[in-house]
């Protein structure tokens, strides 16, 4: 099954947008989930200042 040039272009655009979203959204997502979970017992609490200090 061959794809038309228009379909190939649409797939390329969708892949490029997906790549950009993953590229710019990965670290904020990881940081959000880490702050949401909180620190392990016995460790100091997580704050934005602690993140910037390290």
Automatic annotation (TrEMBL):
Q: Which superkingdom is the protein from? A: Eukaryota
User: Pfam families from the xrefs?
Assistant: Tom7
Cellular localization per UniProt: Mitochondrion outer membrane
Coiled coil regions in record: none
For the keyword Cell inner membrane, the answer is no
Any one Gene Ontology cellular component term annotated for this protein: mitochondrial outer membrane translocase complex
Membrane topology classification: Single-pass membrane protein
Q: What is its main location?
A: mitochondrion
GO terms of biological process kind: positive regulation of protein targeting to mitochondrion; protein import into mitochondrial matrix
Alphabetically list the UniProt keywords.
Membrane, Mitochondrion, Mitochondrion outer membrane, Protein transport, Receptor, Transmembrane, Transmembrane helix, Transport
The UniProt entry's sequence similarity note says: Belongs to the Tom7 family.
Q: What protein name applies here? A: Mitochondrial import receptor subunit TOM7 homolog
Q: Which gene encodes it?
A: LOC105263148
């Amino acid at each position: 099954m061959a794809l038309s040039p228009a379909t190939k272009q649409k797939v390329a655009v969708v892949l490029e947008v997906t790549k950009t979203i993953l590229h710019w959204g990965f670290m904020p997502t990881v940081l959000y989930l880490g702050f949401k979970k909180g620190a392990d017992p016995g460790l100091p609490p997580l704050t934005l200042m602690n993140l910037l200090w390290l």
